[in-house]
Structures are given as structure tokens and as C-alpha cells.
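Researcher: For the annotation table, I need C-alpha cells for Squalene/phytoene synthase. Please keep the output clean. Sequence:
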Amino acid sequence: MTAEALDALAQRLRGEDPDRWAMAMLAAPAARPRLLTLYALNAELARTALSARDPLLAGMRVQWWAEQLAALRDAPPPPHELLSPLWSAWGADAAAFAPLAEARLHDADREPFATPDAVVAYADATGAALMAHAAQALGAADGPALRAQGRGAALVAWLRARPALQELGLGLARPEPAALQSLARTAAAAFAEAARSRREIPREAAPALFPGPAIRPALRAALAATTPAAPSEFTRRAALARLALTGRWWL
């Protein structure tokens, strides 16, 4: 992978997912290609799942990604603007990302979640799995701390995005206060579990475990059955600065 190709990917990610771009840039330089390509893949999968009004067409596009990723187990891909850098950074290990694509088939279907438990399963298969892959790339071993931190972060992100998701048909079938509070409690419990297990995680993995800015206020809002506000740019930058200075990723 050329420096120019990686820089182009990084600049695109910076515009689409500035928090994860910043997380990648806080990692050790040798690990950045892995994080940048992984996060760029995540952004592409999220976009692809919503790229067509027709669920069948969107699903076919997502399935194409799942198949291409699975095929990396056996051989490098034909030249491609994302698959090629992904292979360069991860090699055959990138085949493990096929489930990230498969989980997005739910988005392509534009089906609401029937229960809070279904949202939790989706969060585990998308944001939590993504965080685990990223943390392992920075030297952490897979385990309860990674999965719990990922679950909490993914659920808070989902709760923040829920109003827009409801409009897309991807929210809860019955978005009652009790259901939203249940998700907030699950997120809070996951963060607490991750904090208890934090000594399992090397400091070098901290950038991959950043749950996002203003998590505590977001949880308080969700527990009150209100939509967590989007953090300000100042809050975002301050949270990332604290992460860089302290390495503290847990709540």
C-alpha cells in the first residue's frame, strides 16, 4: 500500500468518521494502517447498507462486500480502492471482517428491531465487534473487557442516532420509554464490566477503546428516556485530548 493510497483513505475517513480517524491517529504509527483501513471499511459498509431505497438492491450490495471479504482468506483481491489497502494492512486476517458486512444486512432490509435485546445483538455484531478487532490490532487480547466496552459504546451511539434511525425504519418497532431505558441500563452495565476488567488491556490499545465523547451525559439522558444530545466540537476535542494525555478509555 502506497503512502498516497493510505493518505487518501485517511482523508476520506476524517470527513466521514472524525472520531475514529482521530483514534487511529492516536495509535502507534505502525498500527495506523490497520485501524485506518478497518474504520474505512466500517464506514463503507454502513453507507452501502443505506445506498439504495430498494432493500433487495441494498442487500445485494452488502452481500457483495461479505463475499469479497470472506474471499480474502484464500487470495488477495483484484485491484480495489479499499479492498487492496485492507489486504495490504491485514492480509488474510481481513477475512474475519465478513461478519461485519453480514450484520449490515439488517440495515439494508430497513426492518425495525422488535425488542431491545435485538438492538443489543445488533450492537454486538457491529460496533462491539469493530472495537474488538481494532483493540486486538493494538495488542489487546480478545475478552470480556473488549466486548463489554464495545457493547456500551455501540449502544450509546445507537441511542444517539435513534431518531434518525426511526425515520429510516431502523429504530425500535415500539420505542417506548421503558425499552430505551432498558438499553441505557445495558450500556451502563457493559461499561462497568469493562472498567472492572481494565487491567487486562495494555495502554497501547487505549485509542481503539475510546467510547466517544460525553458518554456519561448521554447515559443520563437515555436513562431518563430522552434522546442524548450530540456532543459539541469542543467536547469532542476535549475528550480526545484527555484520551491522548491519560490513556483512560473506561468510564
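Researcher: And a one-line annotation?
Model: The CA atoms of residues 24 and 35 lie 6 Å apart.
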